[in-house]
Structures are given as structure tokens and as C-alpha cells.
Amino acid sequence: MPKSSNDQRLTAAERRASGALAAVFGLRMLGLFLIMPVMAIYGKNYPDYTPLLIGLAIGAYGLTQALLQIPMGMLSDRIGRRPVIIGGLLVFIVGSLVAAYAETLTGVVLGRALQGMGAIAAAILALAADITRDSQRPKVMAMIGMCIGLSFALALVLGPLLGQHIGLSGLFLFTACSAVFGLLVFAFAVPKVELRAARGDLLPNLAELGQIAKHPQLARLNAGVFILHCLLTAFFVVVPTQLVAGGLASEHHAWLYLPTLFVSFAFMIPMLIWAEKRRQQPRFFRVAIILLITAIGIIGWAQGSWLIFSIAIILFFTGFNFLEATLPSSLTRFAPAGRKGSASGVYATAQFGGAFVGGLAGGALLQSYGLSGVVWFSVLLLVCWFVISFGMQAPPQWQNVSFKLRELENEELQQLADQLADAEGVEEVRIVSSEQTAYLKVHKTDYNEQAITTLVASYQ
Fold first, then answer.
1. What is the pLDDT of residue 81?
2. In the chain, which residues have pLDDT < 70?
3. Which pairs with CB-CB distance under 8 Å and at least 24 residues apart come from 207-210?
4. Distance, CA of 126 to chain centre
5. Are 421 and 409 within 8 A, CB to CB?
6. Angle between the N-to-C axes of helices 121-130 and 12-33, in degrees from 0 to 180, rounded to the nearest 10
7. Global pTM value
8. Distance (Å) of CA 18 to CA 28, 94, 113, 144, 396
9. What is the pLDDT of residue 127?
């Protein structure tokens, strides 16, 4: 049936709950990102300082996130979202306190690993879906995505600003306090719900992970996000100290990051619009990779002032932000109907795994081979990604939709599947009887939403 105008807007309860979840997610990611721009500088004050431990301190959260992201998502489907989210935030707080009171860099690494053990991303996304209607879910997911991007930008500015006043231990205490605030927001602002949203597009299915990993386009996206976050953590192993060497005091780094981020967004947004409008995502992927290679080259081999480095940082964040925004969008379009949760689980594992490997490799190479070792490693990764990108395709103009069904007999299931498969604009149909859900992959423009809704209504 046609939707009323009220169905096109979030209800007051949906706004409150989704805003609270986005805030919780953003505060947690802020805590993970906050030390990245300052760790390489303040980490030298610990008695066991080595570049390798700096790299591990930056990227250690990625290892535990990569290992636990899928299991924690699946656990939330068994015991409920709230226990997993609350437990994850408590673990994150403990990790922050361990890092804050650590007297050695090894202790900081342990605290960072504990922070990562609070792997609640899948549970938060699933709960966001539980408490919102299907028609409003893209808005809520976009809100959460914007909070993640904002938390990264804030971390680049707040890290240096706060670090000069409260030090690294103070930053970790600030992180613990922000997580406590997030816990209170979650406890009092997010309603308790019993309704479970359809799981296939939200949470990973262990039996499907192997098939998802072999998908040629998804495999390229997973390799890409691994390299991108590997590069990010390696980048922050060396860049802060390079800025200091270039004549910019650490307490002024925030005032470099802030304008360069704004300028990079000014360049990145037209790239996103043009790539989407012309369906030239693979070509712009390669442009973004070239920007990253150029930025790394300037940082590694141009013996210039901090002004030269600011140009490199603009190029870096233009390429990075374009890829960071485009990769998950492409993932959702290539993911088979009803398997977005599994595709996202593999993607998140690759993403956080890259963060760990980048920190580890960046620190080890800096310790053994100096700056040039990190630069060559980064460039080699990017060249490999550049070559892989030639097998990429423009994301299809499809979107995923799902419908809850009543309990149906086998004949009714088959009849519905046949009718949906014959409907105009429907590319793929997947009905999961155990979830009482029909998953469709449909064309964005040819899909007749009213006709499909009317067809499915008799089976609901």
C-alpha cells in the first residue's frame, strides 16, 4: 500500500533512539582514534619506548576488533543486543583505564587491545535496525556513519589540543569518561525492544562467510579496506614526528589538521558526486590511490617544511576520505540479497585487521629501516591495490529491500518466490523461512515499490 507522509519521517522515538546509538558509536570510535595523532610523540616518554611498540599501541585495537567483530555480532543475536553493547562498553572503559595508568608502553598496548575487545559495532547496527522501520533504516545507518566520520575528524583536532594539557594518560582518562557518558546515554535514551529485525542483512552468518570471501568484487573491496586502514595506522606512526622535524610544534598540530581536513573534503565531495553520477567509481578509485601514493612520497622523500607536509596531508585525506566513503557504499550494492550482514562482517574484519597490521608493520619498519622502510611498504601496498583495481566494476544500480512474512507453507514460499522473481525491477530473490523474511535486490529506478508491497501484503 502507498505510504503516508508520516511514514517518510522518523518518529520521535526513532529519532531519540537512533541519535543515542549514533552518539554511543561515535564516542567509542573517538576513543579509539584519539591517540593516533599524538601517540608517536608522547610515546617517547615511556621507559620501554621503541618504534615497534608505538606502532602496536596505535594499531593493537585492530587485532581484537578483527577477531571479535563477527563473534560479538552473532552473540548479540543469541543473548540480546543490550547485554553485548553494555558489556562491550564496560570492557572498553577497562581498557582505557589500563592504558591511562600504564607505566610502560607495553601496558598501553595491552590497554588498547582491551579497548578493541569491546567489539559492539554489529550489535549497535542490529539494534538500530530493531528499533526503526524498514523505510527509515537508511537514514539511521547514514546518521551512524556520519558520526563515525565526525569522530575521526574530531580525534585529529582534539588529540593534539588536549594532549598538550593533559598528556597521553589524560587522553585515555578522557576516553574512559566519554565511554561512561556513552553508557549512560545508551541506558537511558535507547528503549528496550523485543522485536528482532531481519538478520540476514545485519548480522553475519558463519556458513556464508566463505562464499562471501570468494566473491570477486567483494574480495577486491575487502583487500582495499585492509590496505587503506593498514596505510592509515602506518601513516600515524611517522607523520606526527615528521611534522615536528619540519618545524611544527606538537601543540600546533591540531591547527594543521583542521584546515587540511576541510580542504580535503572540498576536493573529495565533487569526486564522490562525479563518480556516482558517471558511474566511474573504479576510475576514481585509481585517482584516489594515486593521491595517496603522491602524499606518501612527499612525506617520505621531500625534505620540506611543515607547509610542504600540509600539502601532502591534504592529498592524503582527499584520497583516504573518498575511499573510506565509497568502499562501504559499493559493498552494500555488490552484497547478495539477504547477505549484507555476512559481507559487512568480512569487510569489518579486513578493515580492523588492516589497522593492526599497519601499526605493527609501520613500527617494525621504522625501527629497523627508518622512515624509508615505512614509505616503501606503503607505496608497495598502494601499487598492489592500484593493479587490483583494474578488475573492479562500477557498483550495480541495485538496492536491497526486505519484507517480514507470516509463517508460510513450502508451496506458498515457492509461489511467492516465483511471483517476486517475475516482478519488474527485481534482480534477485531470497526467502529465508527461518527468519520469515523475503530479501530482494531491486533496480533503483525500475522497481515498483507499490506493486511489490501489494504483492507481498497477502503473505504477511
1. 84
2. 1-8, 133-135, 137-138, 193-203, 303-304, 337-338, 398, 444-446
3. 208/339, 208/342, 209/70, 209/342, 209/345, 209/346
4. 15
5. no
6. 170
7. 0.82
8. 15, 26, 28, 8, 29
9. 80
